[in-house]
Amino acid sequence: MNFPEELKYTQDHEWIRLEADGTAVVGITDFAQHELGDIVFLDITTVGQAIAKGDVFGTVEAVKTVSDLFMPIEGEVLELNPEVERSPELVNEDPYGRGWIVRVKLTGDAGEDGLLSAEAYKELVGQ
After folding, report:
1. Which residues of the chain have pLDDT under 70?
2. What is the pLDDT of residues 38-62, one digit of tens each?
3. What pLDDT is recorded for position 50?
4. Can you say how many angstroms the Cα of residue 6 is from the centroid of all Cα atoms in its chain?
5. I want to staple 32 with a disulfide (CB 3.0 to 4.6 A). Which of 10, 24, 28, 115 is the partner?
């Protein structure tokens, strides 16, 4: 399983990459996509909305289940990745690359309180 060191992680299995321009990219981890199985649909209806840290910003539907997606940091959802909207299987194939889910404009403290390092996330999932 892959745990890129440059990303931060949540206990709910999302990852976040903070960008220099005050935005962030959010997706689900390799562990999460593996546990969910084949992803068939993403339901993100929060584009243009401000979402508090820890609140649900959408759902991911897999063959075996539907799971909520939680915002790892306070921000406004700027866009849903158009590639995963058309081809949700990209989340399975490339969760840290082409399979990112949303881009967010940070609206609150960009602090990393509660976010995990790759090492801490590995420990959380028993890797």
Report:
1. 109-112
2. 999 999 999 999 999 999 999 999 9
3. 95
4. 14
5. 28
**One-letter identity of residue 15:** W
How far is 112 from 40, CA to CA, in rounded Å?
31
One-character DSSP codes across 38-61: SEEEEE---TT-EE-TTSEEEEEE
What is the spatial distance between Cα 72 and Cα 115, in angstroms, rounded to a whole number? Answer: 7
Run of H or E including 120: helix 118-124
Asked if residue 8 lies in contact with residue 112, where contact means CB atoms within 8 angstroms, the answer is yes
Domains for the chain: give ranges and CATH numbers. 8-108 (2.40.50.100)
Confirm if 47 and 126 have CB atoms less than 8 A apart: no
Cα four-point dihedral sign 34, 36, 37, 43: negative
User: Smallest Cα–Cα separation from 12: which of 37, 34, 29, 24?
Assistant: 29
